[in-house]
């Protein structure tokens, strides 16, 4: 396949503009075209207004479709009538107009076919229309380069890309475009068949409709269903009805109606009929978040915002009551999704019965769709994980429950199951560092290929490449002299086990290898230091233990910074507090594009004391020196980053925050991150020069701290921060400016670490800090006391 440098997106609606934004995120030039507004004369201004307005609105949308707002400059705009000839500039054209065959035919015939560049790929973003029905509108030769590329909304955040080739689509087109989409756009590609709603929406729509069916049959309400179909069942917190509010209840109703119409031979077709209460909600405009009311809404009661849920029995709203089921409560402390699901459906309360019935039916429905919607089960599982954020796909869930146990329970209840499920022991297995899936057609296992440029820690561990392990972390041999420290505790928090493994990893790399990667494959990189251990030590007055803990953390961070071999951090998703400090001390970062990093310790009444405050001070001073400038703007910026607990909204923003530096890299594909970090280690190792602790640093001094404190006084007077916020931020100001010394006083890196540690211990002795820590542990959000 030829190189793709420029892409055209046809249609600037919600999906079209968001697809254009994500292409811009990837550094790809985009031409966004839409129709000319009605009654706009030739040559008049505003003929490209639809596309122009869509691009202008990108910066206002939440969640943000762009990594940085200025990336919108990568998008050029135009209209179908005047700018169609510019399609000859584009290597890939994505049609994203109205989901209507007649409209698509018009665009293909009059806009695309006369202007398409020779060899360019044409795809449609349809969410369920037949690729073959659309291919009929195209010349025979173009059909070899035509296929479905179904982005999920919002395209920046949803990993799934369903690719559906037509009968004439060439294998080269499919494989080449898939590689590009995976590497440059960071998508997880699933290959679907030309069936209504493809894979994810077919199973996902069924799961939602089935949840409604059992709600009505068993007498549950909306809030109860969401309590049972969220994390306890391995699903997102939005659960069933929260998700429908997010998507739009009118959209869900339309998809269900279309599914019913397009699937006359589906044995469970009737489940897609929309219940009367949902039809009434749509007619009344109660269609979800975009309307401010749906299955949930917020109302002001006695001056406070109160959440209400829709009561399908009366058509009114009731205040949420946070329903409690013992079966759900039993899952709260379980990390593994399979454990949670087994615990939930294995209980005997009415919530467990509901969860079992809705899960049972969905798993059976998925099994019946093989080979109708896909020939292999991994495609189905990946579609549900990447498109609906399920923690486990249907067949992974069956493995977690136990296939034989599932079949036996369904049999006891007289529920029909696909016969091919009988006798299947499991759907996945790992042998010899290779992962296999069960092929129902062959009745045997087949290898799941690993995409080039990926590193799987799971497979490496199965192959015996674990060098050392403790409850919080492991050291894994990545090959070529590169080792990896993997965090794997609860939320990958950093405690003694992790710090110990960092030290062991550095020593092993120094003695036997060329460098070290710090990264993992968890749902997040690290939530930071282990607050539970800290809270227990503070509550018991064990301040010597706290001092030792902080000293050990600082030692581990300095070990990373001054190792004799390069250390590269590979963060992704949440990277909070101590996790951020770990990355700041590495020689380089290879961050996944969706990395949300910050020094957020002030939220629990503390300051970054694992070298984070010190590191941000050093970077500010270094920037001033390198630019021959006053330190003021640099130190104030880094101070605000800590004092305001700023968290990046993307990896790209980390460069602005001073947390990523020239030479650091952003990886779009989550599965390539560790591989790219390994390559970075190898590159750095060729001419690596270890650093030494910094001395002769010119402290900004007490005058800068005083200026910061003046601003804090103003914020308190304005009611923007509390007195304790002021106290905490003042402490940070004292540390980041080098303490109570005149400006220009020469200090050392070690001195800054001592300041951090002393300030941290002082804050640990404050009652309000302990309250903040305990509130975070109980509620999962900061306390403003």
Give the key terms.
785 residues, alpha/beta, Rossmann fold, N-(1-d-carboxylethyl)-l-norvaline Dehydrogenase, domain 2, 2-enoyl-CoA Hydratase, Chain A, domain 1, 4 domains, eight-stranded mixed β-sheet, seven-stranded mixed β-sheet, 31 helices, 15% strand, globular, ClpP/crotonase-like_dom_sf
Helix/strand layout:
Elements: E1 6-10, H1 14-25, E2 29-34, H2 49-58, E3 75-79, H3 80-83, E4 92-95, H4 101-112, E5 121-124, H5 131-135, H6 140-143, E6 146-151, E7 160-165, H7 171-185, E8 188-191, H8 200-218, H9 222-228, H10 241-247, H11 249-262, H12 276-283, E9 296-301, E10 304-311, E11 316-319, H13 326-329, H14 337-346, H15 350-368, H16 377-388, H17 394-401, H18 403-412, E12 428-431, E13 434-439, E14 444-447, H19 457-462, E15 466-469, E16 473-479, E17 482-487, H20 496-512, E18 515-518, H21 531-539, H22 543-561, E19 567-569, E20 573-576, H23 578-584, E21 588-592, E22 595-598, H24 612-627, H25 632-643, H26 651-656, E23 665-667, H27 673-685, E24 697-698, H28 702-717, H29 723-736, E25 746-747, H30 749-764, H31 767-779
GO molecular function, one term: (3S)-3-hydroxyacyl-CoA dehydrogenase (NAD+) activity
Pathway: Lipid metabolism; fatty acid beta-oxidation
Keywords: Fatty acid metabolism, Lipid degradation, Lipid metabolism, NAD, Oxidoreductase
């Amino acid at each position: 396949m030829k190189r793709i440098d420029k892409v055209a997106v046809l249609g600037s609606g919600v999906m079209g503009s968001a697809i254009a934004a994500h292409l811009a995120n990837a550094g790809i030039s985009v031409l966004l075209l839409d129709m000319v507004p009605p009654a706009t004369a030739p040559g008049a201004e505003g003929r490209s207004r639809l596309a122009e307005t869509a691009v202008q609105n990108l910066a206002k949308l939440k969640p943000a479709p762009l990594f940085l707002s200025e990336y919108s400059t990568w998008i050029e705009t135009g209209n179908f009538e005047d700018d169609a000839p510019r399609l000859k500039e584009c290597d890939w054209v994505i049609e994203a107009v109205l989901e209507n065959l007649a409209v698509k035919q018009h665009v293909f015939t009059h806009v695309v076919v006369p202007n398409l560049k020779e060899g360019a790929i044409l795809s449609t973003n349809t969410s369920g229309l037949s690729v073959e029905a659309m291919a009929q509108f195209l010349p025979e030769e173009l059909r070899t380069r035509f296929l479905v590329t179904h982005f999920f909304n919002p395209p920046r955040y949803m990993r799934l890309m369903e690719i559906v080739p037509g009968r004439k689509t060439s294998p080269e087109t499919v494989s080449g475009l898939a590689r590009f989409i995976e590497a440059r756009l960071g998508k997880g590609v699933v290959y679907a068949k030309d069936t209504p709603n493809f894979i994810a929406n077919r199973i996902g729509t069924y799961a939602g409709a089935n949840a409604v069916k059992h709600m009505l049959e068993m007498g549950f309400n909306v809030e109860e269903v969401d309590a049972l179909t969220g994390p306890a069942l391995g699903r997102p917190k939005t659960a069933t009805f929260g998700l429908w509010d997010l998507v739009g209840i009118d959209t869900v109703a339309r998809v269900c109606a279309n599914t019913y119409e397009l699937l006359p031979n589906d044995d469970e077709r009737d489940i897609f009929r929309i219940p009367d209460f949902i039809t009434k909600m749509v007619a009344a405009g109660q269609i979800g978040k975009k309307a401010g009311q749906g299955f949930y809404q917020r109302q002001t009661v006695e001056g406070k915002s109160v959440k209400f849920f829709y009561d399908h029995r009366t058509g009114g709203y009731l205040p949420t009551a946070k329903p409690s089921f013992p079966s759900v409560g039993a899952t709260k402390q379980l990390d593994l999704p399979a454990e949670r699901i087994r615990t939930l459906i294995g209980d005997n309360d009415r919530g467990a019965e509901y969860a079992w019935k809705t899960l049972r039916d969905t798993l059976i429905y998925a099994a019946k769709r093989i080979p109708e919607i896909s020939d292999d089960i991994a495609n189905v599982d990946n579609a549900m994980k990447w498109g609906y954020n399920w923690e486990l796909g249907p067949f992974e869930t069956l493995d977690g429950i136990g296939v034989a146990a599932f079949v036996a329970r369904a049999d006891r209840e007289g529920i029909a199951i696909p016969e091919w499920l009988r006798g299947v022991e499991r759907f996945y297995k790992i042998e010899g560092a290779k992962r296999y899936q069960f092929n129902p057609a062959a009745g045997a296992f087949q290898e799941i290929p690993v995409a080039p440029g990926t590193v799987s820690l799971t497979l490496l561990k199965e192959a015996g490449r674990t060098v050392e392990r403790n409850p919080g972390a492991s050291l894994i041999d990545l090959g070529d002299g590169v080792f990896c420290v993997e965090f794997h505790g609860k939320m990958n928090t950093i405690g003694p086990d992790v710090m110990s493994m960092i030290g062991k990893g550095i020593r092993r790399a120094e003695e036997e290898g060329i460098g070290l990667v710090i990264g993992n494959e968890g749902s997040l990189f690290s939530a930071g230091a282990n607050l539970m251990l800290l809270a227990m030590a503070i509550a018991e007055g064990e301040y010597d233990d706290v001092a030792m803990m902080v000293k050990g953390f600082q030692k581990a961070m300095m070990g990373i910074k001054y190792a004799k071999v390069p250390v590269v951090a590979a963060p992704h998703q949440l990277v909070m507090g101590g996790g951020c400090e770990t990355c700041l001390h590495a020689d380089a970062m290879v961050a996944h594009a969706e990395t949300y990093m910050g020094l957020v310790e002030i939220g629990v009444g503390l300051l970054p004391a694992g070298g984070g405050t010190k590191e941000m001070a050093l970077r500010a001073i270094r920037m001033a020196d390198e630019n021959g400038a006053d330190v003021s703007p640099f130190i104030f910026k880094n101070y605000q980053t800590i004092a305001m607990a700023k968290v990046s909204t993307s990896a790209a923003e980390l460069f602005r925050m001073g947390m990523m530096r020239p030479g650091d890299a952003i990886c779009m594909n989550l599965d390539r991150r560790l591989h790219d970090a390994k390559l970075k280690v190898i590159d750095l190792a060729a001419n690596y020069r270890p650093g030494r602790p910094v001395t002769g640093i010119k402290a900004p001094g007490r005058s800068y701290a005083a200026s910061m404190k003046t601003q804090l006084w103003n914020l308190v007077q304005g009611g923007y921060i509390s007195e304790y916020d002021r106290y905490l931020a003042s402490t940070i100001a004292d540390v980041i400016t080098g303490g109570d010394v005149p400006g220009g006083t020469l200090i050392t890196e070690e001195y800054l670490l001592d300041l951090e540690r002393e300030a941290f211990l002082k804050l640990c002795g404050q009652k309000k800090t302990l309250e903040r820590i305990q509130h975070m542990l109980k509620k999962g959000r900061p306390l403003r006391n």
